[in-house]
């Protein structure tokens, strides 16, 4: 089993290469670029340069798309804007040599769970068609979500993968917050694919699910790493507030468990 560890964040365009070198020294093999507030790498030359550096250092890059996405909005313009945001990440991601764009698919709002699923599935299919038309290699990965009133249960994401051919992101902290426990056997059945892209951190949650991420405790890392399947290629992006130290800690614990 190989697990790639790394943080959710690369920092500014100007510092990106320096940061990547630091990551390499720390032993990170993956880095998720946070376009969560905007797709801040705009210049294609910058993207190429950063992508080449990452490749040279053996660090895989992924992108987290902006939070402002709702593929089930009741307003058509908002759906279109959401798709555009994802496609913008794909476009710049191609220059960066990024493997996948992770995104939060949307909200149930006033529509039923079934209807929400159907709507989101339709939009994902359209995005995939656009990617295909452009001959892009990038994957799009809807994420399992932590709040019970937000679309993205493990079952919903699994079905999207089955029915559209999209990729996925398993956020174990979100699953814990949403379902109050992580049923690893269920997750293995829902995601039989060889490659798992995962998010992880400690999490504070209540009845309605996720409240906020927090630093991962040692025993939480241990539980996750013991329960992950052994026959897959796994990447774990750490999203805690202390993501660098936390990723290092996870890696150390993994080395001991191996
Ligand atoms: Zn996310």
Give a concise summary.
The chain has helices at residues 16-26, 44-57, 76-96, 113-133, 154-164, 172-179, 184-190, 218-227, 243-257; strands at 2-7, 30-34, 60-64, 100-103, 139-142, 170-171, 195-200, 202-206, 209-214, 233-238.
Describe what you observe in this structure.
Helix content is 46%, strand content 19%. The protein has a single domain, classed as TIM Barrel (Alpha-Beta Barrel). The strands form 3 sheets. The chain has a 4-stranded parallel β-sheet with strand order 1-10-7-6. The radius of gyration is 17 Å and the shape is globular. Helix 2 crosses helix 3. It is of the alpha/beta class and 258 residues long. Strand 2, helix 2 and strand 3 (60-64) form a beta-alpha-beta unit. The protein has 9 helices and 10 strands. Zinc ion binds next to loops.
Secondary-structure map:
Layout: E1 2-7, H1 16-26, E2 30-34, H2 44-57, E3 60-64, H3 76-96, E4 100-103, H4 113-133, E5 139-142, H5 154-164, E6 170-171, H6 172-179, H7 184-190, E7 195-200, E8 202-206, E9 209-214, H8 218-227, E10 233-238, H9 243-257
Parallel strand pairs: 1-10, 2-3, 3-4, 4-5, 6-7, 7-10
Antiparallel strand pairs: 8-9
Bound molecules: zinc ion.
Tally of domains:
1
Label the CATH architecture. Answer: Alpha-Beta Barrel
The helix fraction, in percent, is 40-55%
The whole-angstrom Rg is 17 Å
* Apparent shape: globular
CATH class division: Alpha Beta
Figure out the total of helices.
9
Estimate the mean pLDDT confidence. 96
Total beta strand runs: 10
Query: What fraction of residues sit in β-strands?
Result: 15-25%
Alpha-carbon distance between the two ends: 9 Å
